[in-house]
Amino acid sequence: MEKIVGGRLPTPAINILPTVEDFEIASARAVGRLIKAAVGERSRCLVALSGGNTPRGIYRRLGDLLTSQSVDLSRVHLIFGDERMVPPDDPDSNYGMVRHELISRVVIPPSNVHRMKGEMNPEAAALEYEQELKKLFLSFADRCDVMLLGVGEDGHTASLFPGSPILREQQRIVRSEFVTDLGKWRVTLTLPVINRSRAVMFLEAGEQKAAIISNILAAAQPNEELPASLVHPDPGSLTWMLDSKAASLLPSPLGTRVS
Ligand code: 6PG
Fold it and tell me: What is the residue with the minimal CA distance to atom 13 of ligand 1?
């Protein structure tokens, strides 16, 4: 967690794009640049992918971009920020969405894609994934190079929900939780993993997210009722990619409007 200097959290880089299409194109390009830079500098890149719907168009564009630019994906490993506890072919599966939108568009060794097993018992799946990540952190990369995140309208990110005890987890890197408001189990990376990342990028679009994004970015202190406000990589970078609708409630000087 970045030091709170002068009583306020540092302001992240905020890029505001006019339309959803511009947002998807700019986000895909930004992620592609991060991947290529990591492969160029360290001959490897560990990417944690967000679930949900917002990233779909970004992943499609990213897949086409990585292919068109012949990025060597044998040096890239993909992990997941969280998963709904459903089988991979279930419409709700984050892995299923990434397989359709991204993995199907690129050439990447299957062993480089690390799926949270939504079909398993949640705690068993969390323990198994934690072991798999620990091996990856020892053998491939000591932290995520790129951490992609979304934000729910309640301020959750990954599957870290408001008021959850998992928000205070400092030892485990993967946890399972029954999310009462959803009535469903989730498996999620924990904040220590997220905040160790070299580059964290929130990807959000749409008017329905404007209020929560404004609240999160206005938060002077980390707030467990706004889990996304607890994401402050240190020494990594924090960037918000937004479309103009999602940014519509931000005070004008905040953020760089990219035309
Ligand atoms: C999930 C995600 C979650 C998501 C937000 C936003 O499994 O749902 O990991 O954190 O990013 O809920 O979802 P949308 O992009 O669908 O609004």
Answer: 52
